[in-house]
TrEMBL record:
GO MF entry, a single one: ATP hydrolysis activity
Keywords: ATP-binding, Cell membrane, Membrane, Nucleotide-binding, Transport
Location of the ABC transporter domain: 5-238
Keyword Mitochondrion recorded: no
Gene3D superfamilies listed in its UniProt record: P-loop containing nucleotide triphosphate hydrolases
Protein's name in the database: ABC transporter
Length: 257
């Protein structure tokens, strides 16, 4: 099976404000395949966001090697899209201009094709009629949809998502999960999804990476054999409940006292 992202013996040490150092990650091995959906879960501070920043090329590891399509990561790359916890939209731009903003910022212009694609993405995230609104006129869930559309404009092979739904209410969160699954099936890509929610990880993922508390290490990689397409019925599947309980026990047993 072809690997898209490889982390080999990756370690990350940060300088701490007290003059000491923080070992955020130690000897992390991860091999992610083309078009698979992988979630990272683990206790707060175990280095999940650090892994995303390393894959994105926003940070260089202090030890080990990260490769994307077999090429060492040395800087941010075009194959990657990123979605953060907050949508970080520019309030003075329209929704459509927010989606095309990264292209405009990088290349100084937006092509006719990119404009057309931005409109297509708006349709895909269910916001066809909102292209000319400002972000302030949209709900939190709608704003996060715009951020997802923005991350997909250059059709990245890899989508990195850092707790993208954590600021949303429970109902919107479920709705967004199903929406993301639909987008992912329409435009398959390798997704690395950070979450604190075991349910969310189970509903979305092909595999779940369970990390241990700092220094963050990969504690386990769990296959999720729940059938696709997944929907509301998945949440009631006895295997779903059984796996959620087992993972909860595993995560709590690894959390710091
Ligand atoms: N730039 C930095 N400088 C110093 N320490 C940092 C830096 N970035 C992260 N850390 C530390 O590295 C560790 C891992 O942080 P990270 O944000 O990756 O964890 P996380 O698992 O995503 O946490 P959470 O679940 O709370 O979001 C934490 O102890 C954090 O304080």
């Amino acid at each position: 099976m072809e690997h898209v992202i490889d982390l080999d013996a990756v370690g990350q040490v940060f300088a701490a404000s007290d003059g000491g150092s923080v070992t955020a990650l130690q000897d992390v091995q991860l091999h992610l395949r083309r078009n698979e959906f992988v979630s990272l879960i683990g206790p707060s501070g175990c280095g999940k966001s650090t892994i995303l920043r390393l894959i994105a090329g926003l940070l260089r590891p202090t030890s080990g090697l990260i490769r994307i399509f077999d090429t060492p990561v040395t800087e941010p790359r075009d194959e990657i899209g990123m979605v953060f916890q907050k949508p970080t939209l520019l309030p003075w731009l329209t929704v459509l201009d927010n989606i095309t903003f990264p292209m405009k910022h990088k290349y100084g212009r937006v092509t006719v094709q990119e404009h057309a694609r931005a409109r297509e993405l708006l349709r895909m995230v269910g916001l066809t009629d909102f292209g000319h609104k400002r972000p302030g006129e949209l709900s939190g869930g709608m704003q996060q949809r715009v951020a997802i559309a923005r991350s997909l404009l250059h059709d990245p092979d890899i989508l990195l998502m850092d707790e993208p739904f954590s600021a949303l209410d429970a109902l919107t969160r479920d709705e967004m999960s199903f929406e993301l699954l639909r987008i992912w099936s329409e435009r398959p890509k390798t997704v690395v999804f950070v979450t604190h929610s075991i349910q969310e990880a189970l509903l979305l993922s092909d595999r779940i990476v369970v990390m241990s508390a700092r220094p963050g290490k990969v504690d386990d990689v769990i296959d999720v054999p729940l059938p696709r397409p997944r929907d509301m019925a998945t949440l009631a599947d006895p295997l779903f409940t059984e796996m959620a309980n087992a993972i909860r026990v595993q995560v709590f047993s690894r959390a710091p006292a």
